[in-house]
Amino acid sequence: MKKQHLIEEIRRKNPTAEPGFLRQFTEAQLEPYLNRLKHVSGRRGRGSVWIRTDETTAVVMRAA
């Protein structure tokens, strides 16, 4: 999927995401985010499961 198309799809799911901010990321970084947005907008409950992929970290922090 092209980067611009990814950004448009992300904005459909999350209209507060600014296009300029999203353009800072690569297609490879935007795709998992879009997949996550699609998942969380779906059904919820006991059967709803999301498995974190190896390419994303569980905790992110920045050193000041």
Radius of gyration (CA) equals 13 Å
Please tell me what the overall shape is. globular
Low-confidence stretches: none
Mean residue pLDDT: 84
Helix content: 40-55%
Described by strand count, sense and barrel closure, the largest sheet is: none
Number of strands: 0
Strand content: under 5%
Element-level helix/strand string:
HHH
Give the termini separation: 35 Å
Characterize the quaternary organization of these chains: single chain
Q: Name the structural class.
A: mainly alpha
Features:
45% helix, mainly alpha, 64 residues, single chain
Description:
This protein has one domain. The longest helix is centred in the middle third of the chain and has 14 residues, at 27-40. It is built from 3 helices and no strands. With 64 residues, the chain is an all-alpha fold.
Summarize the structure.
With 64 residues, the chain is an all-alpha fold.
How are the elements arranged and paired?
Elements: H1 3-13, H2 19-22, H3 27-40
